[in-house]
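Submission checklist for the structure archive. All mandatory fields must be present; incomplete records are returned to the submitter.

[x] Identifier: RDD family protein
[x] Organism: Luteimonas aestuarii
[x] Residue count: 171
[x] Sequence attached
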Amino acid sequence: MVGTGHTVDSRPRALVGWRMLSLLYDLLPVIALWFLVAVPFILLDAALHGDVRHNIAPYSVLWWMQWLACWGATGLYATLSWRRGGQTLGMRPWRLRVTDVVGETPAWRTLWMRYGIGCLSLVAAGAGFWWAWFDRDRLTWHDRYSGTRTLRMPKRGLRAADAGGDRVADD
């Protein structure tokens, strides 16, 4: 990364607790996204059945299409966020950032692989996340197999508060 004075290897690794906190925080915008994605499916179901007082039938084609759309929308949220700024909304408060092994922005294919393996990890009761406690490099499954790294960025240093040169801490 240009101008930061840090290399990828000198930054502390993101711990499992920070990752879990960021996932919990990211659940809020993702649920809102799911509500938006579900609207056309609910309207289509109501139009097909003429009844707005029921749910989409579990395991029906429409139900599977809705969940696939929600999964895809969540993937777009994550990969666009990682690609644009290295962080999702949930990663920002804890200063987590996704990079490739040399500290650059990962490629789209890499980010989608990371997302897919991360989903499998969650389905497996978070085993891929817990794995970071045992991995020699403290990498999760999705970091290891996609060639990405989740780093905890250092706190910002002091900055000039005004033209007078007074200095205040950012954090």
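[x] Structure attached
Curator remark: The mean pLDDT is 86. The longest strand covers residues 96-100.
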